[in-house]
């Protein structure tokens, strides 16, 4: 059996590498796919080569389909299946990693009856609309509806998203498989780090992630509680945040994009973790911080609340309220017994519900089920 892999619109191995996520994909997903499928075919939106990615060299079953003519991503999405017909026609199932990547998989299904397993992780159109990209929001709405009406199975990451998706497709085609954590990499530190407490943020430095709230909260706290901020990630707000930190006198370090295999060490060097976003799907950053046993403080939004149980395994605050964030952060940093209790409960929740090995196994089982059904149909 062969498996076709389709990234989000515009996605590529280069993009995964630039965001630090290639190591996660190469260590946790590719090996499980390769154990089960004879050939893996990856449709990239960039003109790239496997030779450029050493972490992928241990998967000889992998074939990369490049955008050799460097066509516009939106145009190429509609042409990919035709330009790589020889490779894609051999596949028995397609895996689409976000709804925005549905078009080439849909084209392959129309031509060769290849079933589709797609992820619907959050409302892509809503995020584009909030960011002021009206035309993009309209197009994403079309892609979302195409996914929900043409995919043979949709993987959702939270129960609220499952309820939304079930409005458009039969319940038995909706599969709740949350994001997970590699527990062999992400685990608590043996002892608390020394020195002034460090508060970590992990994510894109962009308006929807609201990192400026963390700066404002740290400024409120620093007179009574000297602390350091560790911003892990990059984005359009980086320079603005750095300038604001200097103006406020907040000790902030900006690590930029960090490879996924370096994240555990950085998280274990922190005393607490903050995710102040206005919008989240099922936040991997929050899961990874909790797996490392950190007391977490998160904005009170559906995506975060799907993971955090307030007062039991983490703390929440109204999104955008830096005063409330400062108050909760003071608890996480000032009450060691409370912080230790929250951290232990957070780690236990991840072990119980979000073990990535188990979750990828469920995904692979779903792919195999549809691939075998396709082979049986083709044989008749």
Descriptive report:
By secondary structure, this protein is α/β, with parallel strands linked by helices. The protein has two domains: 2-180 and 356-379, 3-Layer(aba) Sandwich (Rossmann fold); 198-353, Rossmann fold (3-Layer(aba) Sandwich). It has helices at 13-18, 22-36, 73-83, 85-88, 102-112, 124-130, 134-150, 159-165, 211-221, 238-248, 263-268, 284-291, 302-305, 322-334, 336-353, 356-379; strands at 2-6, 39-43, 62-65, 93-96, 116-120, 153-156, 174-176, 198-202, 228-232, 251-256, 272-275, 296-299, 315-317. It has a seven-stranded parallel beta sheet with strand order 3-2-1-4-5-6-7. Strands 10-9-8-11-12-13 form a six-stranded parallel beta sheet, sandwiched between helices. α13 (302-305) links the parallel β12 (296-299) and β13. α6 packs antiparallel against α7 (134-150) and α9 (211-221) packs parallel to α10. The mean pLDDT is 93.
Instruction: Report, as a whole number of angstroms, the end-to-end distance.
Output: 17 Å
Estimate the helix proportion, in percent: 40-55%
Major sheet details:
7 strands, parallel
The average pLDDT score comes to: 93
**Strand order of the biggest β-sheet:** 3-2-1-4-5-6-7
Give the CA-based shape: elongated
């Amino acid at each position: 059996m062969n498996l076709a892999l389709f990234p989000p619109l515009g996605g590529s191995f280069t993009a995964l590498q630039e965001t630090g996520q290639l190591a996660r994909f190469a260590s946790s997903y590719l090996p499980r796919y390769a154990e089960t499928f004879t050939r893996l075919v990856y449709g990239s939106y960039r003109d790239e080569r496997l030779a450029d990615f050493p972490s992928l060299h241990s998967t000889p079953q992998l074939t990369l389909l490049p955008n050799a003519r460097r066509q516009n991503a939106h145009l190429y999405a509609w042409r990919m299946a035709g330009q790589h017909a020889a490779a894609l026609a051999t596949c028995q199932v397609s895996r689409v990693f976000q709804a925005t990547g549905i078009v080439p998989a849909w084209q392959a299904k129309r031509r060769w009856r290849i079933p589709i397993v797609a992820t619907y992780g959050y409302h892509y159109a809503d995020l584009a609309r909030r960011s002021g990209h009206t035309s993009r929001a309209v197009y994403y709405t079309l892609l979302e509806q195409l996914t929900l009406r043409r995919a043979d199975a949709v993987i959702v990451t939270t129960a609220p998203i499952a309820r939304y998706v079930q409005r458009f497709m039969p319940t038995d085609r909706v599969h709740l498989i949350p994001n997970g954590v590699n527990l062999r990499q992400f685990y608590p530190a043996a002892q608390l780090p020394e020195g002034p407490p460090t508060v970590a943020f992990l994510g894109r430095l962009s308006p929807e992630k609201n990192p400026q709230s963390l700066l404002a909260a740290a400024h409120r706290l620093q007179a009574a509680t000297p602390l350091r901020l560790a911003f892990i990630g990059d984005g359009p707000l980086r320079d603005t945040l750095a300038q604001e930190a200097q103006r406020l006198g907040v000790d902030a370090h900006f690590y930029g994009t960090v490879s996924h295999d370096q994240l555990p060490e950085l998280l274990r060097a922190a005393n607490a973790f903050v995710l102040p976003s206005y919008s989240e799907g099922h936040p991997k950053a929050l899961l990874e911080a909790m797996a490392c046993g950190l007391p977490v403080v998160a904005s009170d939004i559906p995506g975060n609340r799907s993971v955090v149980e307030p007062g039991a395994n983490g703390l929440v605050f109204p999104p955008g309220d830096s005063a409330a964030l400062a108050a909760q952060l003071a608890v996480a940093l000032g009450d060691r017994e409370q912080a230790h209790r929250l951290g232990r409960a957070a780690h236990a929740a991840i072990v119980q519900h979000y073990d990535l090995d188990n979750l990828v196994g469920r995904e692979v089982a779903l792919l195999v089920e549809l691939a075998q059904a396709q082979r049986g149909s083709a044989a008749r």
